[in-house]
Amino acid sequence: MTEKEREQTNELLLSFTDVAYVRGGRHILRRVNWQMRRGENWALLGLNGAGKSTLLGMIPAYTFPSKGELIVLGETFGRYPWQKIKERVGFVSAALHQFAGTLNSETLENVVLSGAYSSIGIYREVTEDDRARAKQLVDEFGLGYVGQNPYGMLSAGEQRRTLLARAVMANPDLLVLDEPCSALDIRAREQFLATLEEKANERTWPPFIYVTHRMEEIMPSVTHVAILDDGELVAKGPKKEILTGERLSALYDVPVKVVWEQDRPWLIVTARS
C-alpha cells in the first residue's frame, strides 16, 4: 500500500464528538461519540425511537446538534456553508415520501436526474451529460423496463431502487441509507439489498451508513456496526465483535442468538430460562 493509499484509508469522513439533541426539554440524543473512516461501511442499529434518524439527519442538516461537534467530510458544522456538504452526501430514506406530491408526477428518470441538483423535482436546465448519466443509472439499477412511467406508478421496491440511483447521481462522497427497506415485503427488500450489495463491491461506490432496526438487513459489505439505545451509542466496532447474542439480548430485552450465514447475521429468539 502506497503512502497516498494509507492516507485515504485513514481519512476521517464523519465525526460526532459529545453530540446531544434536545427537543421540547427531552434528551433525544446524549453524549454521542462516533467516527467513520474511509474504507468502512457502517450499520447503525437500534429499536424504533432510539434516535437513529435524528442522529443521521444531522449530516444533511435535517436536524441540528444541541451540543457537541459534528464534522462531515473534513468540515465542521456551523463553520462552513453546509449546502456544499449536502451536495456531497447521497441520502435515501422512506421519509422522502413526504414529497410524494412532487415525486409521483415525475418520471423515474427525472427523479434520478434530480439527484444531480439536490432537489425534489427539476427546476433548472438539464445538461446532456446529466441526462445521459441518469439513463445509465436507470439501466444499471435494473429499472430500464419501467420506461417513462411516473414514479407514483412504480412498486414500493422499484421506488426505493429509484431513490438509491438518485442518491448516487451526483457521485457523492458519502451515502446515508435511512431505513431504506421500511415497509417493503421480503421480495422487494431482498431485491433492494442485492442491488446495494452488488454496487457496494464496485471500487467507485461511496462508503455508506445503513440505518435499520432489522439486523438481517446488515449485508456482507457492512464492515462496522454502531448500536444506539435510548439516545446513547452503547457499542461500536467491527460487526462480528458487536453483534453478539449477549449484547443483542440486552438491547431487545429478549433472549436471542446470532447465526451468521454467508457473512450475514440472522437473529433467532431462544427460550427464556
TrEMBL record:
ABC transporter domain sequence ranges: 14-255
Keywords carried by this UniProt record: ATP-binding, Nucleotide-binding
Highest taxon, organism lineage: Bacteria
Short name of one Pfam family: ABC_tran
SMART domains xref list: AAA
GO molecular function, one term: ATP binding
Name of the protein described by the UniProt record: ATP-binding cassette domain-containing protein
Organism expressing this protein natively: Veillonella magna
